[in-house]
Amino acid sequence: MAPTNMPVRLVFLLTFSSLVRGQGVEDSGKYPIVVSTWPFVEAVRAAWKAVDKGFDAVEAVVEGCSACEELRCDGTVGPGGSPDENGETTIDALLMNGATMEVGAVAAMRYVKDGIKAAKLVMQHTKHTMLVGDRASVFAISMGLPGPTNLSSSESMEKWKKWKENHCQPNFRKNVAPVDSCGPYEPKDSMGHNVGICSAGSSMGIVDSRTSLVGPHNHDTISMAVIDKMGHVAVGTSTNGATFKIPGRVGDGPIAGSSAYADDEVGACGATGDGDIMMRFLPCYQVVESMRQGMEPKLAARDAISRIAKKFPDFMGAVVAINKKGEHAGACYGWTFQYSVRNPDMDDVKVFVHPLSGKGNGWRTWETVAPIFSRAKINTKVIVTQSAGHAFDVMISTKDEELNSYDGVLAVTQHSSIRSPA
Ligand SMILES: *[C@@H]1O[C@H](CO)[C@@H](O)[C@H](O)[C@H]1NC(C)=O
């Protein structure tokens, strides 16, 4: 284990079996298959159980995302997490059938905890695509889902109270006065003057707090793709959105083509990250369309992410792409991304970590990387070394028996031995 406070470089991580076969992180492909953003292992197991029994892709996605909602994966899926400025938790969810191109979605849904089931009701029992807010709740309850339910938890209320005490910082406002308290806010022009109002606003600069708002524990969305035994593709997402969002905010979660997209003819895509930015690029639509033009999943994923990074170099996000053969690959930017996979070749869910995760090709402190690995509950061998070559030598000379006991291997290089990325 690397000592704490030691800046390290994430050099590479491969699942052991891929290393042995000399493959990259991408898998050879097979279906049925379940793929999900993040190490939401229980959700993938639930979806796998359904699809393995012969349920169709749509049913399996609903099973998987429901499991995540019940477990409140990371506190950012299902009830009880991500309070908005008023302390309320709301739900965004999407379901898409790649066989028929039908979509059902709910956005900013209040008082109903079953996001993906509500999305399914919209898809299967209406001619619409999306319902929002209170009206989505009324529909969901009228169609048999439990509610009205208080979606707050003691944790979400506690988090919200602390945020209020901290003058409602950080928040998603910009170009407003007052900058440093809870409002009400007024628009300010770019010179920092209040628009149309002569009173002296706060002269403090606007704190760009976006980076402190957007992180792996704020924007986790489950975005899941399934290919069933018949080769049909479906995707679904569920999230309670960004913490401390402005009430009414809808992110990428319920937007088809942004957080997820599926087409039987091509494959599927799931996305997670800074949804406010990502939804401007429809990255999952892009991934699927690139694959349709013949790009392999790895390149399609990378291309979609780099289009966003070019315009928003500070964004954080990731996509995972699967083609209809079941070949999958992830691409990420600005953070350490993992996705989970289960297919007939695997005994259990595998968590894949992008080898170049993080800003500057993997520059991350050990403190930021370690919790992610423990969260994934994967048994990782860590090699602290001076060079990637040495890490490889260590791997080669390690007995198969020992290597087989790990889910992955992480090689970290001490900061002092590497020049900082420009
Ligand atoms: C909802 O639940 C939270 C946390 O348990 C509680 O603090 C809050 O008062 C409840 N709201 C209502 C309207 O009952």
Automatic annotation (TrEMBL):
Group of enzyme by EC: hydrolase
This protein is called beta-aspartyl-peptidase
The source organism is Hibiscus sabdariffa (roselle)
Q: Which reaction does it catalyse?
A: Cleavage of a beta-linked Asp residue from the N-terminus of a polypeptide
> Residue ranges of the DAGKc domain?
344-422
Known EC number: 3.4.19.5
Q: What is the lineage of its organism?
A: Eukaryota, Viridiplantae, Streptophyta, Embryophyta, Tracheophyta
Going by the UniProt record, its keywords in alphabetical order are: Autocatalytic cleavage, Signal
Q: Name one Pfam family in it.
A: Asparaginase_2
